[in-house]
Amino acid sequence: MCSRLGIEHDLENETVVVTAGPTCEDLDPVRYLTNRSSGKMGYALAEAAVRRGAHVVLISADSSRSAQGVEFISVRSTEQMHKAVVEHLPRATAVIMAAAVADYRR
Questions:
Q1: To which H or E segment does residue 42 belong?
Q2: What is the pTM of this model?
Q3: How confident is the model at residue 1 (pLDDT cuts 50, 70, 90)?
Q4: CB-count burial class (<10 Å; 0-12, 13-18, 19+) for 12
Q5: Which residues does 102 contact at the CB level (< 8 Å), separation at least 6?
Q6: Chain centre to alpha carbon of residue 84
Q7: What is the pLDDT of residues 4-24, one digit of tens each?
Q8: pLDDT tens-place string over residues 53-105
């Protein structure tokens, strides 16, 4: 049925790590810097990889969105995202870096 819809499981036995969304960097206990990234691209890529049969690790700073069939890792800061990527990198066969990480850190 999937092949009739043009969906093939060509990523079976692959592990894809995808980053998505913006990160937040604290300036002080009240204020932080972020950006307006919606995370839509990363979530769409993660869901496409799942449909193609991959095991997907989605690392995102936007936990208000949802993606079906992924291993979801919630982060907030650029440093947390970096640590999560490094932790899951050894088992990854592909990495898609779609997150809009902050370019400032205090």
A1: helix 40-51
A2: 0.89
A3: very low
A4: exposed
A5: 22, 23, 24, 25, 33, 34, 35, 77, 78
A6: 10
A7: 666 789 999 999 999 999 999
A8: 999 999 998 777 788 899 999 999 999 999 999 999 999 999 999 999 988 87
Report strand pairing: 32-33 vs 25-26: antiparallel
Residues noted as catalytic: 35
Q: Cα–Cα distance between 79 and 106 in angstroms, integer?
A: 11
Cβ proximity of 21 and 100 under 8 Å: yes
Q: Is the dihedral of CA 91, 84, 81, 9 positive or negative?
A: positive
Question: Are residues 23 and 63 in contact, defined by beta-carbon separation less than 8 angstroms?
Answer: no
Both tokens of residue 50?
A: 């799942």
C-beta separation of 25 from 13 below 8 A:
no
